[in-house]
Write a structure and sequence with these properties.
The chain has helices at residues 42-56, 60-66, 164-167; strands at residues 3-4, 8-19, 28-35, 87-93, 98-104, 110-112, 124-136, 139-153. The chain is mainly beta. The longest helix has 15 residues, at 42-56.
């Protein structure tokens, strides 16, 4: 079962190159999706609950209520610096996700994004995710696997990084073009500057 998330802001995007979460861990493609307060997450929550019931049966509801079954929805936003009232999920995959823009190409389908600078912390995206259950080493729960990402629009960067054009001022009106006269005097017997 694959679900398309609502609009979210992406954080910690490692979607073009995999990254190991800890030394010795397997590198994975990953990111966090931050949903603003009031975002309708009912379809995601329903898929997670259905996956829990499939894996853990009748005891899943009791495990969820008691907190013994981990769910992917996180509200500890203050320590992450996310907006108050937000909910976030961490998603990852071993396979490289497809990443597309909101604009259509000549075939009518979304144009692929290949420039890593396009997907930065704070831009708005939606993702396709797949819920899965786990029960390993005493840890039980349901997580969401990352499938693909679509960029929806630009947003204020979470990391505070500025574009170079916004950080510096121009020192001259324009670059003086190089003409043929500028190259006179550089012969075969003289050292060339290039």
């Amino acid at each position: 079962m694959t679900i398309i998330t609502p609009k979210a802001r992406i954080s910690y995007p490692h979607v073009f190159e995999p990254r190991a979460a800890a030394p010795g861990a397997e590198p994975m493609y990953s990111c966090s999706l931050v949903f603003e307060a009031g975002t309708d997450l009912s379809a995601l929550k329903k898929a997670v609950i259905e996956t829990a019931r499939e894996r853990f049966g009748d005891k899943s509801d009791a495990l969820i209520k008691s907190g013994k079954l981990r769910l992917p929805f996180r509200t500890d936003v203050e320590e992450k610096g996310y907006p108050e009232g937000a909910v976030f999920i961490n998603i990852r995959t071993k396979s490289k996700p497809g990443i597309v823009d909101r604009y259509a190409g000549t075939d009518g389908k979304p144009v692929p994004i290949t420039d890593p600078d396009e997907i930065y912390p704070g831009c708005y995206v939606r993702a396709s995710v797949r819920p899965y259950a786990y029960d390993t080493n005493g840890n039980r729960g349901v997580s969401l696997a990352l499938c693909n990402i679509q960029k929806l629009e630009d947003g204020e960067r979470f990391d505070g990084r500025k574009a170079a054009q916004d950080e510096f001022e121009a020192l001259e009106e324009s670059r003086k073009p190089v003409s043929a006269n500028d190259l006179i005097g550089y012969g075969a017997d003289e050292e060339t500057p290039f």
